[in-house]
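Task: sequence in, structure out. Protein: DUF3598 domain-containing protein.
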Amino acid sequence: MISLRDSFPLLARHEGIWEGWYRYIDVDGNQIDAHRSRLICRIPDDTPNIYHQTNHYTWEDGRTDIRDFKGHAEGVRLIFNNDIIKGWSAEEPLDEHRRTMMLHWTRVGEPEIYLYEMIQLSDCGNFRTRVWQWLKNGKTVQRTLIDEERISHEWRGE
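Result:
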């Protein structure tokens, strides 16, 4: 059995703890929400074919939210199918710099809304930027801009 670290080398470079900001922008360019984030991205040693990501969100007013996502490999895609999202992630083979991942998903219970995400990892591996394009029935309804910095490569114990 080939591990995700071997079959998805760019994804493996994302392992660790990331902190940053999510900023939600409407179609007119206005910020409609923002919150801090702490993401734990890991390929567990005991399940090397599973990707596991836990997102911790904190708003300025004290609200918090935690979301947990697991994915498994099917060919060149990492498949997500849980109570929040259904979709896939893949390393972009046309990026000769090996910096880009693409995702597509729908939210459970909102089939008319789908998202595409592009993730760019810096060459040093300690910074990444992500953009979500939110579409409803084919029309853009908002975007999410995410800026993150890796604060640790070590996720074990988190």
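The chain has two helices and ten strands.
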